[in-house]
Known about the structure:
Largest sheet: none
Number of strands: 0
Strand content: under 5%
Helix content: over 70%
Distance between the termini: 12 Å
Number of domains: 2
Structural class: mainly alpha
Order of helices and strands: HHHHHHHHHHHHHHHHHHH
Shape: globular
Amino acid sequence: MSFERKAIVGVIWQSVMNYAGFAITFFINIALARILFPEDYGVFALATSFAEIYLIFFSFSFGMAVIQMEDSDELFGTALILAMITGAAIMLGAIILSLIFINTLHLKITLIFLLVCFASALNATAGVYSSVSEKELKMVQNSVVRGWASVVAIIITLILALNGFGIWALVMQNLSYSIFLLLGMMKVAAIKKSIKFNLLTAKKILLFGTKGLFARGAEIAIFRIPNFFIGTFIGIKELGYFSRSLYLISLPNTMLSSVTQSVAYPFFSKISSQKEKIMKSFKIMNFLIFGILAPLSVLCALFPGEIIFIVFGSKWAGATEYLRGLTLLMLYMPMLSNIRIITYSLNKIEYTVKSYIAGILLTMFAILSEIFFIEGSFVVLYSISMVSIILFIAYYLRGIKIFVSRKEIFSMPAIFTIISLVPAYFFNTGFVWKINMFSRIAVMLFLYLILMSFFFLYRFETVRKYYKLITGKLKELDN
């Protein structure tokens, strides 16, 4: 099987497993939100944020280094040993920090911090095992393992929540997923040869990993700054509302990121010298993302209260404005993931780092605006700062002759959204609230299909061009 066909098969398998796993985990998450309380999610989000800020110093991405570097007898063994050493260092540092801060932080937050760090240590090793199959785009077993681990973990979480474990059910979801993922990836990799360590290879892996560390660190910072700000200045309950709103907004990106991470990254790495082919793939992915997610983001902006009520129940009404303010991210987070993968594949990680730093500065401005100027402005300005990261990365890519169309990424979404809001206004909030829940879902689904059809009909020539391109490529591969 050719490498391109492996990439297509990989995308299909990842998509199938993602959608199957998504259906199960999404409905269980709905049940969890009705069992647990906003305060539970707030405490968990705050403790996880502490852990992830600490883990910035260990974000070496050894698995990505294995995919990027040329094969050698010592490559896997060296990366695996480095990952295990990193895991041990993570736990040692976490225990020391817990002993230091146990009197400052709540005991519950300290214990959650330790368990999240342990899960991360397991993930570092699982990532190296996973890279063996990802490098060759052998995605069938890889996808099954990820889907299986996710579903088993969320079922365990639901059982614990139903038996009164509260916030610890959320902690066990994180930990059990990491355990099952590691065991599954070890089985899939089936490494039979002896593990060898090479100092020169280790230096190369660490050099690559250091670049990834800065990028991962900046990414964690920009995603976790809101948690610290809301948890510290507004309150734990509000942080719970924010975290669940961000969960809903991030669902499309969560589903797509495993494809971009596991399939697009190794594929782009293999064809890194063929910039034109990379950009074609990038444009097609963004076009499909926009056509599917833009109508969904419009619905979230129009009916945030209804969506929160349908999904989480009436006790989560406080999340309404957070969901409305974050709607831009539903569309742009997958686009950010795509353009970030290009910089990783071309070994231009510094472009992502610089762009994230700019985004962090804009996020700090959003915080200052909330505190000193306009109350309630933070969430919208934070969304805009995230979108600006794409613009910064696109600017840096122009320096290596990769041109990302601003029209496709910014102008078209703005025009489509404005035009869509006019007919969508007919289905106003008051109208939807007067009908029962199933009718509300039907109305929103109907509106979504109308908006999506409108987009694809409006861009019919582009749809036909990409369809011919994809089908032509498949026929070419068959021959």
